[in-house]
Each structure stands twice: as structure tokens, then as C-alpha cells.
Amino acid sequence: MRGDNANITNLLAVLSDEERTVLKLRALFEQRGYRRYHTNRFEEYRFYLENLSFLRSEQVITFSDLDGRLMALKPDVTLSIAKNVDSSNGLRKLYYIENVYRPNATGRSFAEINQMGLECIGPVGRKEVREVIHLAYESLKLTGEPFRLSISHVGFIAGLLKSLRVPPKHYAALFESIASKNPHGLLAAAEAAGIGSENIDYLKKAALLSGEAQSVLKQAELLCRNGEMQRSLNQIRHALEGLTDPNILVDFSIRGDEDYYSGIMFCGYIEGKSRLVLSGGQYDNMMKKLHKSGRAIGFALTLNELFGR
After folding, report:
1. Where do runs of H (alpha helix) occur along 32-180?
2. N or C: which end of the chain has fewer CB within 10 A?
3. Cα-based torsion angle of the residue sequence 32, 79, 122, 126 in order, rounded to the nearest 10 degrees
4. CB 174 within 8 A of CB 189
5. Mean of pLDDT values over 196-212
6. Helix (H, G, I), strand (E, B), or coil: what is residue 243?
């Protein structure tokens, strides 16, 4: 037994920080009942063309298969899992370590990006949503680096715009300004949408709320105008039960396409990294669009960004 322990210790000593972190994450996910899932490296390009608004970029690497079909190297894992996993017989809890192919940060060339993440698909309820949020928090904590986890909800801003009777054709411009935390752009977009000055002040105050979770939730409570906004706050509170870390923030500027996302959205940052290292959310609407039963929530860690590759 001592010899076995020594061998394990020696093995761990030669692993890189990335390899050790991946092993810890695998252990974390598997202890919670998640099982590893392997996706194909490519799908038919038509599938991605039909879901371009979910992708970070419309640019996809394509090639012709031997049977003449136009194929694409996988730019996203979640889409592939949602398309191919059958959850009709119950809850599926899956994790993956996969490469995706997207334009790099400069947008001048493509990059192979290594991701590790998980998806919970099927009869997803409040318990599963809370579990995934907690796993996102624990995943960031496992890196051993200072971090923050920011959480939002599609329903808060959607309910806000409905309360102001904003025509849907103006949503995109408003969401863009909110996501970029651009008060001047938000003012221009609000004026173009015909929102009065009093309501513009209210919109700016509510949409740009960001900070320590419990403090922001209290402020947001005072700004609720309808049931949709209230339900979104209740769902965030439930998801955060048991988490009191001041590094957990609520930030309503986090953007998600309502055609796909349906509830909580979140992202994670590591101190010293210029871009986010974790992103996720509930994507029930994607499941409906793919004619799948059930609900879904998940997140992905970008290992390239986390380990500076």
C-alpha cells in the first residue's frame, strides 16, 4: 500500500498544473454523478447555419465530406450535445473535455480551443440549477486563483423591457448597450425606442446593476415592475443558496439570446486574465428549437485561457 501511495505521489509530481486541475475537475464532476461524454469532431454545416445566433462567431471551418455533404469542424460543444443526447428517459448529467474551432482573439485566424464543461439535460428543476451553479463556483475555486462568478437572469431585463412597452425590434440595440455597460449608447438606444426620460433613468438604473450578490438583489427587488422580474430574482436567490462568497456577483449586463437562453446565465473570471474563463446558462429554448423534450443548463471552462495557452 505504501508503495502504491508513493507511485501515485510520484505520478502527480510530474503532472502539469493543467493536468492536475483537469483531474480534480473530473473527480468533482463524477462525484456529483456526471459521466464523461465524447462528441464528434464535426457536424453538418447546415446545423450550425440554422443556429448561428447561438455561436460566438458566424465564421466556421467547413469542408466537403466524401458523400458531398458540407461539414463543419465543431465550433461549440453545447449545441452538439443538445442535438445528439436523448433525455426522454430521464435526467442526463454529462461532462466533456473537447476541442472547438473558432476565430482567435484577433479574429484573423482560427484557433483550436480546449474546453472542459458539463451539461445537465432532461427534467431539470431548481435543484439541478442550483447544483450546476455550485459546481461552476467550485470549479473556479479549484483553480487556486482569485476569481469572481457573475450571475444574471434573462427574465430580469426581458421583464424590464416589457414593462416599458419597448417594441421587440429595439431589443438588440438595447441589449448591446447594456452588455457593453455603455450608458451613452443605452441612452441613444432608449430614445430611438421611444422611451421617455423618466423611464430612461429607471432603465439605466436597473439594467446596469452590478455588484455583490445580496446587495444587488436587494436593490433589484425595489425596481421590480412585474412578475417576470420578480421570478428571475427568486430563481437567482435559490440558485445561490449556501454560497456566501463576496466574489459571487449579480450583474444584469450579462447578455444571452432569448431564442436560446431561458433563465439563469453566468460567467467566471480569473484575476489577471483579460477574458472570461467560464460561461454558462439555462438553454431550455434551444432544446425547444431542436425539438427536444426537457430543459437544460450547463457551462464550459476554456482551458486555453485558464492556463495561458
Report:
1. 45-49, 77-84, 126-142, 154-163, 171-179
2. N
3. 70
4. yes
5. 89
6. coil
Contact (Cβ atoms closer than 8 angstroms) between residue 109 and residue 85? no
- The amino acid present at 42, given as its one-letter code, is F
Q: For 17-46, b where at least 16 C-beta lie within 10 A, e where not — what string?
A: eeeebbeebeebbeebebeebebeebbebe
Residue 71 cell numbers, joined: 461539414
Q: At what angle do helices 17-31 and 126-142 cross, to 10 degrees?
A: 160
DSSP state of 307: T
User: How many Å apart are CA 174 and CA 177, to the nearest integer?
Assistant: 5
Which strands sit side by side in the sheet containing 147-153, from one edge to the other? 35-36, 92-103, 110-122, 295-302, 278-282, 264-270, 147-153, 248-251, 210-212
pTM metric for this prediction: 0.90
Contact 193, 167 (CB under 8 A): yes
Collapsing DSSP to helix, strand or coil, 38 comes out as coil
For residue 5, the model assigns a pLDDT of 54
Rounded Cα gap, residues 27 and 29, in angstroms: 6
Q: Which of 159, 161, 162, 164 is nearest to 177 (CA)?
A: 161
Question: 250-293: per-residue pLDDT in tens?
Answer: 999 887 767 778 899 999 999 988 789 999 999 998 898 888 88
CB hemisphere CA count around 31 (13 angstroms) = 9
H/E stretch holding 270: strand 264-270
What's the distance, Cα to Cα, between the start and end of the chain in Å? 37
